[in-house]
Design goal:
Blueprint: E1 2-7, H1 13-20, E2 26-32, E3 36-38, E4 43-45, H2 48-55, E5 60-62, H3 68-77, E6 81-85, H4 93-96, E7 103-107, H5 119-126, E8 130-137, E9 147-154, H6 161-171, H7 173-185, H8 216-225, E10 232-236, E11 239-244, E12 247-249, E13 260-263, E14 266-270, E15 275-277, E16 280-283, E17 289-290, H9 291-297
Parallel strand pairs: 1-2, 1-6, 2-5, 6-7
Antiparallel strand pairs: 3-4, 7-8, 8-9, 10-11, 11-16, 12-15, 13-14, 14-15, 16-17
Length: 307
């Protein structure tokens, strides 16, 4: 089986590795987005998928959009099918039609739940206890194509969006390989998506801002869903503080929303219902530190209230 692989971020690397290591699969080329500025110095850096492809000696095509010229290059590859994992751009109909068996997408949700760019993040923010992955045939709509296969996974108490995505990127890789084989061999039975549709638009920095008037459980879900990107944060005296590892403390009810207190070595913050305990914090311009160490070093006699 000859394939084109399309993907960009680190979550798309494990499926690429899995496919590249299969003796019955030949990756003719890897399509990824162009180099992007990384770090404080904004150094142009190849995507994680591009770096892995180059390490393996695979031809790399870099493009942020698939135009007519690129479509012809894809057609000329002679691939049977394309595998897509978080490529990051829409595939136009002409490109979909360029390969005999189309384009098969691995999406980290149980479609039609959480269609869009941030399925795991939105699922955790909504409090879902079960997540998963689906393979489906791409069509013109947003994640609307018929489903070839699915797998599920339970959300663990310590999970963040980052840990769930990392786990699914590994455990769903065999599902992608099996689905590709079934599509090319003609044994796949794609089924139209059924059930309630929910959308998962890309997260913005504002999605990470903690709303202390929300109940404690909602605060915890927001932090888990926005960790590590775009990051959960609050403000103190107009300066941002990044938060991670937040746990609900519903029995604490004497703190006003946003009010912070150090008790018994634990940093507690009031919410709209109960409180939460902070794990680590990262004040602007400083390194991540234990929340209790931050609180002990916060030199103020005033009542501390996060904004």
């Amino acid at each position: 089986m000859k394939i084109l692989y399309a993907g960009t971020p680190s979550v798309a690397v494990p499926p690429l590795v899995h496919l590249a290591d299969r003796s019955n699969i030949e990756i003719l080329a890897v399509l990824t987005r162009t180099d992007a500025p990384v770090g404080r110095k904004k150094v142009l850096t190849p995507s994680p998928v591009a770096q892995e492809a180059q390490r393996r000696g695979l031809p790399v095509l870099k493009a942020n959009r698939i135009d007519a010229e690129l479509t012809e290059r894809i057609r000329d590859l002679g691939a049977d099918v394309a595998a897509v994992v978080a490529y990051g751009a829409l595939v136009p109909q002409a490109a979909l039609d360029a390969l005999p068996h189309g384009w098969l997408n691995l999406h980290f949700s149980l479609l039609p739940q959480w269609r869009g760019a941030a399925p795991v993040q939105r699922a955790l923010m909504a409090g879902d206890t079960v997540v998963g992955a689906s393979t489906f045939l791409l069509e013109a709509g947003l994640d609307t194509g018929p489903v070839v296969g699915t797998m599920t996974d339970e959300v663990r108490p310590e999970d963040t969006a980052g840990t769930v995505l990392e786990r699914l990127s590994r455990t769903a890789a065999p599902l992608l390989a099996d689905s590709l084989r079934a599509v090319v061999e003609g044994t796949a039975r794609p089924a139209a998506q059924r059930g309630d549709v929910s959308l998962a638009p890309k997260l913005t920095a504002q999605d990470g801002r903690v709303r202390w008037a929300d109940p404690a459980l909602a605060v915890v879900r927001r932090v888990r869903g926005t960790t590590p990107e775009p990051g959960a944060w609050t403000q103190l005296d107009g300066r941002r503080i990044k938060l991670e590892g937040v746990a609900a403390r519903p029995e604490v009810r004497d703190l006003a929303p946003g009010e912070c207190a150090l008790r018994g070595g634990a940093v507690l913050v009031g919410t709209g219902s109960g409180a939460v305990q902070l794990g680590t914090v990262q004040p602007a311009g400083k390194k991540t530190m234990d929340a209790a160490a931050w609180a002990r070093g916060h030199n103020t006699e005033d009542r501390v209230v996060f904004e």
